[in-house]
Amino acid sequence: MSGERVLVTGAGGFVGPHVVQALLAAGYRVRITQRNGTEPPPGVEAVVTGDFAAPIDWAPALAGVAHVVHLAGLAHAGPGLDEALYRQVNTHATLDLAQAAYRAGVGRFVFVSSIKALSGASDAPPLDEDAPPAPDDAYGRSKLAAEQGLAGIDLDWVALRPVLVYGPGVKANMAALVRLARLPLPLPLGGLTAPRSLLAVENLADAVLFALTPRCPARRAYALADPEPLSVAEMLAALRKGMGRAPGLVPAPAGWLRLAAGLVGRREAFDKLAGSLVARPEALLRAGWRPPLATRVGLERLGQRRDAI
Predict the structure, then answer these.
(1) 217: domain CATH number?
(2) Helix (H, G, I), strand (E, B), or coil: what is residue 35?
(3) Which residues form the NAD-dependent epimerase/dehydratase domain (predicted)?
(4) 267 domain residue, yes or no
(5) 225, 197 in Cβ contact below 8 A?
(6) What is the pTM of this model?
(7) Which residues neighbour 64 within 8 Å (Cβ) at sequence distance 6 or greater?
(8) Cα Rg, the chain, nearest whole Å
(9) What are the 10-residue block averages of pLDDT along the chain, 309 residues in total?
C-alpha cells in the first residue's frame, strides 16, 4: 500500500537493490538494514544493525514499520562451512527478527528462503512444492528450519523459495554462463538439453511485492521460478541472441563435458547448471501472481548489457 514503510534486510546483495527499487516504484517507503553506516540509496532510510551472527536489538529498526522483507542470510557457499553458522544466520537470526516483528505489530513478514529448503535433487522429476521437504545440505536445512520456526509465530508470514536467480549483477554459475556466451567461439554445449528452472531478478522483486498484499495467502511457503524452464543450450542461445549473435552451439556428449569440468575442478558447478531442476510456481500463479518478464526475454536483455556481470 502506498506510503507504508517496509524494512528490508540484505539490501546490499545481488537481489536487494532490485527489491528496494521495486518497492519505491510501488509507492512504499523503504528502510534498509546495514552492517555499517554507509550512504543509503536516494529516497531510502538506513539503520545500522551490525552482523546477523550477533544478537540484534530490532526495536529501533522496526519502529513505524508496516512490513518486513527479509533477504539477508548466509548464501549457499558449498561444503566446508560450519552448519552451526548457517543455523545462526539463516535460522536463529530470521526467527529473532520475526519475533520482534510480531511484538512490533508488523503486518506481513516476507522471508526469501530457497528452493534448497524443498529439495537438493537434480536430474529428477519436477518438484512438487507441496511434497514433504527434503533438503540435502546445511544451507537448505537452515532455510527450512527458519520456515518451520515461522509457523510457530502468530505472524502473517510468507516464505518464497526462489530457484537460480539471474539478472544484472549476477554472480557465480550464471555469471560463468554469461562469460561463456561472450566467447567468440562455437561452444560444445548444444547437447545439454535437460530443463532447468530460472528466475529473473525482476520477477523475484515483483513476487515480493505480490507477497506483501492480501491477495497472497499467508502462513505458507511458495516455490518461486519463471514459469518456463530452459536447458543450458537454450539459455546460451537466448544470451547470444541478446548479443546479436547466432547460438553457435555444437552437441557434445554430456559425459565428456562432465569429465572435462571435473579435470578443472568445476564438476559441481557443471552439474548444477546442466542437471534438471524444475520447480513451477503453481501456488503463486493460482493466487494471482503474474511474472512480468518471460525467461527468454530476460536472458536476451541480460546478454545485451555490457555490465551484466
Answers:
(1) 3.40.50.720
(2) coil
(3) 6-214
(4) no
(5) yes
(6) 0.93
(7) 5
(8) 20
(9) 89 94 97 88 91 89 97 78 90 97 97 94 80 92 97 97 93 88 92 92 98 97 96 96 95 75 69 81 97 97 87
